[in-house]
Amino acid sequence: MNATSTLAASITKDASRQTFYTIRFLADRERVVDAYRAYAYFRWVDDCLDGESASAEERGVFILRQKSLLERCYRGETVAGANSQEGMLIELVQNDAEKNGGLRSYLFNMMSVMAFDTARRGRLVTQAELNGYTGWLAGAVTEAMHYFIGHDCRSPRDETRYLAVSAAHITHMLRDTFDDIQAGYFNIPLEVLEANRIAPQDVGSDAYRSWVRSRVQLARSYFNAGRDYLDRVENLRCRLAGYAYAARF
Fold it and tell me: What is the pLDDT of residues 97-129, one digit of tens each?
């Protein structure tokens, strides 16, 4: 194992034992190391963006560097001055034989998630923006799962493909409401706040609670459709990983 593979496994294990062992036991053998890199790189990016010591300007500069690095890697450019964490991304792209498949989709979608989180901190966001946020996250996680687990096996490509992860993300944002407010992230759309003349901190108001109920109902319907999708995935290991991911929420 080289330096980035050891670092990636260590970051993954420290951050999420479930993810670490899911990759270890369910990922395709030849893709285990890259699966650790894929998770660990964005875990590092997210930790850097969430750090209290960095200013908004510094976070903006950081995410722009990471976006540029990803784009340059896929253009085949030589990248100098990368640190060991960025080296995980560089090796991932170098190992991507498809160049326009599931790994690329994961990397660019997840980078969009990170960029949006950077931009939305401290400001209200619209429903369309939140929908895009969930769409990027769902696309990233789903395509990564299929790329690293049973990549040669069939999986449905219909309107239900991303619903299990979309449901998980909706649930995650509801669950983290209080912590996110403290950190400057507001998960209720601007339209709801304006229509009901409430603030994002008014979580006990009737209007806020009504909106939460509607999101819970939506998540439940997405979970049901998402499980039906997973039932139709050919690869057993991939199905198990999908069920385990959804069960966390």
Answer: 998 999 999 999 999 999 999 999 999 999 999
For 109, what's the count of Cα atoms within 13 Å in the CB-facing half-sphere? Answer: 22
Q: Are 196 and 114 in contact (CB under 8 A)?
A: no
What predicted TM-score, i.e. pTM, was given to this entire model?
Answer: 0.95
| 8 A C-beta contact, residue 245 and residue 145 | yes
User: Which residues touch 77 (CB under 8 Å, ≥6 apart)?
Assistant: none
Domains along the sequence of the chain with CATH: 1-121 (no CATH), 122-249 (1.10.600.10)
CA distance 245 to 249: 8
Q: Rounded to whole angstroms, how far apart are CA atoms 116 and 125?
A: 10
Q: How many CB atoms lie within 10 A of CB 5?
A: 17
